[in-house]
Every structure is written in structure tokens, then in C-alpha cells.
Amino acid sequence: MDYQVRTARITDVDRMVAILDGSGALTTGPGAAADQLRQLVSLPQASVLVVESHRRIIGAGVLSLRPSAAAGANVGVVDALGSDEGSDAVGVADVLLAELLRSARNKGCRTVEAAPPTDPRLRPTWARHGFADAGPRMTCTITIT
User: Fold this and answer.
1) What secondary structure, in 3-state letters, does the chain show?
2) 11 phi, psi to nearest 5 deg
3) How would you classify the pairing of strands 56-68 and 73-83?
4) What is the structure's pLDDT at 72?
């Protein structure tokens, strides 16, 4: 499958909310999530990405940054990651994680955290990208090259 990953636009928010809500990635209601995504799209301390296939958005991912004195740098947090019900969840997660980690590296993060995926088929994909269980969350250490 041929995927295109790009930065999300304000006009993508409704589709992103539908995907993330359908994937179980939202902990708030769709209305609150839409408001938050509209703000994050334009902030430099976040990366909001969509995956397209044949010009249709089939996946979405959100990385936010938080400063950490303990880490000595920003820590990236994968706040949400999901794919359309009819798409290849593993393939979409793979391309989104690669781009979110690249973005985290470019923004100076040394660590990225995330809640473990609820879909057990996605665990090997997260592990391939360097994520490992660390208590209730997963972490990935980023090497600066």
C-alpha cells in the first residue's frame, strides 16, 4: 500500500477526530478533542500528522512535547495514534511512528512516551520502533546522530 504522511491542517480535524474516536484513541469526547486538535495543529511544540492513501485520510497521530528537567531535554508524548477501520492498522501505525519519532528527534527529544496500544497486533510495530514497556507506559529512547 502506498501511504503519504503529511502535517495536518485545520480542515483535517473532523476526519482526524472520527478516526481517533473510532480507534479508541480519544479519552475525551469528540468535541473536546476537536478543539484541542485545532490548537495543536498550529503549535510548534506539537506534531499533528495524517496518513493518506489515494487522497483519503486513513490515519492520524499526535506528538506533543513537554519539558523535562530529569531528561535534560524535551520529552515527546504520543498522545493519540489511530487508523481508519478499513485500513491496514499495522502499516498505518508503522509510517506514523516513523514520522513522529523523526519529528521528536528534530525537536530535540531524547525520549518519547506513549500509552501501550490497545490493539495487540500493533505491539510488534511499536517494539520495532524501539518502544518498550516502562510501567504503565511505553518509552523509546532516541539517539541523536
Assistant:
1) CCCEEEECCHHHHHHHHHHHHHCCCCCCCHHHHHHHHHHHCCCCCEEEEEEEECCEEEEEEEEEEEEECCCCEEEEEEEEEEECCCCCHHHHHHHHHHHHHHHHHHCCCCEEEECCCCCHHHHHHHHHCCCEEECCEEEEECCCC
2) -70, -10
3) antiparallel
4) 73
Residue 53 — pLDDT band, cuts 50, 70, 90?
very high
Size (the chain), residues: 145
Q: What CATH number does the domain located at 4-141 have?
A: 3.40.630.30
* Closest by CA position to 39, among listed 26, 30, 48: 48
C-alpha distances in Å from residue 45, one per residue of 13, 76, 127, 135: 18, 9, 25, 25
- For the chain, which residues make up each domain, given as ranges? 4-141
